[in-house]
Automatic annotation (TrEMBL):
Every ABC transporter domain range: 5-230
Pfam families per record: ABC_tran
Molecular function terms, GO-annotated: ATP binding
Keywords assigned by UniProt, alphabetized: ATP-binding, Nucleotide-binding, Transport
Lineage: Bacteria, Bacillati, Bacillota, Bacilli, Bacillales
Domain of life according to the entry: Bacteria
Signal peptide extent: none
Protein name per its UniProtKB record: Vitamin B12 import ATP-binding protein BtuD
UniProt KW Cell membrane keyword: no
Keyword Transport: yes
Length: 290
């Protein structure tokens, strides 16, 4: 399977935070969800991916090309959607098109006007009067009108109401009907990824904890419920983290098979959500010894 992106042992240090030996890949033709708590390193990783930050060490390749040596050629093939408006808000979509279209050799006016009509966006109105949802649709419009092979989305549904969020996700589903397209979708709204993501990459405190197929991930992990008298110093070590109450415990395991071997039918094991995995991992430590 071809990888569109490969991060290999990438580090980037700041005064109070660092990305530490980050390695993961993004597979061609799929949606990869990128999750992590605020401050975990998502935005830093995306800035490195876009070559907006210089890495301290390691290697990043995109489309099999070295990022440092082929920056312009790579960006011709990428569409980027940021969570905040980065356009001059006194301009209209028509005026912005005149500025942006010449930047891309493969700009496609047919695509541009198709999505302009589909999104019901006013072409001549200054964008400062747009709602957040309209601005997000506009950002997507400009990101995809040069028919990019790889689309990077940084919190594209943040702050949108449920209707707009659903419309954005349906658009991404439409884009992915072309199996040559690849999407990297960074978000803290994990329910959106339940709808569209094929793979999940999870960053925690500057480290990649896992990068796996979503269905495989939700099979390996489980929410475990049982009586407190089942817990002792040894059994508690088998969980990522535990929440205890007067009536029992609830915990996250990263190794469902091992948990079944240890506890048998004495516990209930349920399929977790991505939100469950994030919540318990932030409280505990992701380990699994087979």
């Amino acid at each position: 399977m071809t990888n569109v992106v490969e991060f290999n042992n990438v580090t980037k240090s700041f005064k109070n935070f660092s990305l530490d030996d980050v390695s993961f890949s993004i597979k061609k033709g799929y949606v990869t969800g990128f999750i992590g708590a605020n401050g975990a390193g998502k935005s830093t990783t995306i800035k490195l991916l876009m070559n907006l930050l210089r890495k301290d060490s390691g290697n990043i390749t995109i489309f099999g090309l070295d990022q440092d040596k082929h920056n312009q050629a790579i960006k011709e093939r990428i569409g980027f959607v940021y969570d905040e408006n980065c356009f001059y808000d006194t301009l209209s979509i028509r005026e912005l098109r005149k500025i942006i279209a010449p930047m891309y050799q493969k700009w496609n006016d047919n695509l541009f006007y198709k999505y302009l009509d589909q999104f019901s966006l006013p072409e001549k109105q200054p964008i400062k009067g747009f709602s957040k949802g309209m601005k997000m649709k506009m950002a997507i419009l400009f990101a995809i009108s040069h028919d990019p092979e790889f689309i990077i989305m940084d919190e594209p549904t943040s702050g949108l109401d449920p209707v707009f969020r659903r419309e954005v996700l349906e658009l991404l589903h439409e884009i992915m009907l072309d199996e040559q397209k690849t999407i990297f979708f960074s978000t803290h709204i994990t329910t959106d990824l339940d709808r569209i993501a094929d793979y999940i990459t999870y960053i925690h405190k500057g480290k990649i904890l896992f990068s796996k197929e979503r269905e495989e991930l939700l099979t390996e992990y489980g929410i475990v419920k049982g009586s407190n008298d089942l817990l002792d110093r040894d059994t508690e070590k088998e969980f990522v983290s535990i929440r205890k109450t007067n009536v029992g415990f609830e915990a996250l395991t990263s190794c469902v098979k091992k948990t079944k071997d240890i506890f048998g039918d004495e516990v209930l094991i349920e399929k977790p959500s991505l939100e469950d995995i994030m919540y318990y991992t932030n409280k505990g430590d992701l380990t699994c010894t087979l």
